[in-house]
Amino acid sequence: MVIIRSFISFFSLLILVRLMGKQQMAQLTFFDYVVGITIGSIASTLSVQVNQNTTATLAGMGVWTILPILLAVLSVHNVWVRKVVEGEATVVIENSNILEKNLKKLHLSIDDLISQLRNQGVFSIADVEFALFEANGKLSILKKSQKQPVTPGDLNIQTQYEGLPTVLISDGVLLTDALYSLKLSNAWLQHQLGKQNIINISEVSIAQLDTKGNLYVDLMGDKQSYVISTQN
Question: CB-based contacts of 172: which residues, under 8 Å, 6+ apart?
């Protein structure tokens, strides 16, 4: 009975999580975290509490899934709902001045703030123009303009387009759709691999072609990796 209920609980939880949508852990609010724990707790109850009614427990899981979805939809269209559900960012540093009042609202000490700054690579509060605690608890920092790194745009330097690389081989398997999407042939790829005496595609853990024409190849078994220029 426990095995059967565990299967039901597992796949029900999988379906409900998919319905709730994808969200990175770093973007989860505290409310999202509590909802996730609650749904998981109900699922574990369904799994091992054989005296609990299966239908009623599944209904509870469904309600705890549907309500966050409804709130998420409402928060997209309503600013007030979004602030209530997700919260809003709180400024804790403004023009290098620490706003102790806002820190107290967040129940954070100055030591906590300094620790968060160090995690972001900032060791001097004097370098910070603005610092905000986001709704997910992550600290966002805007350094003063004179402390920000120089970019090619600041120096009026033209740069080349750099898009996403394309994986051509994964775990020894040729991804023909990816290869043909770039209008390349198997023979072309074999020729490029042959430059490093790689004969069999099955030897390759991953092969990735970037937009500059560089083919990164990593071999199976923690062997050497190569960067092959396909322009030659």
Answer: 201, 202, 203, 204, 205, 220
- Contact indicator for 228, 215 with CB cutoff of 8 Å: yes
CA pair distance 111, 94, nearest whole angstrom? 17
Looking at residue 150, what DSSP letter applies? Answer: P
pLDDT of residue 232: 64
Model-level pTM greater than 0.70?
no
Model confidence over 3-60: pLDDT tens digits? 888 888 888 888 887 777 655 444 566 777 788 888 888 888 888 887 878 888 888 8
CA distance 88 to 19: 25
- Give the residue-averaged pLDDT of 87-100: 90
Estimate the crossing angle of helix 54-77 against helix 79-86, to 10 degrees: 130
Q: Angle formed by the axes of helices 2-20 and 30-48, to 10°?
A: 160
How far is CA 143 from its chain centroid? 24
Mapped onto helix, strand or coil, the DSSP state of residue 10 is helix
For residue 208, what pLDDT band results from cuts at 50, 70 and 90?
very high
The alpha helices in 21-136, defined as continuous H runs, are 30-48, 54-77, 79-86, 100-105, 110-119
Q: Which amino acid is at 109?
A: S
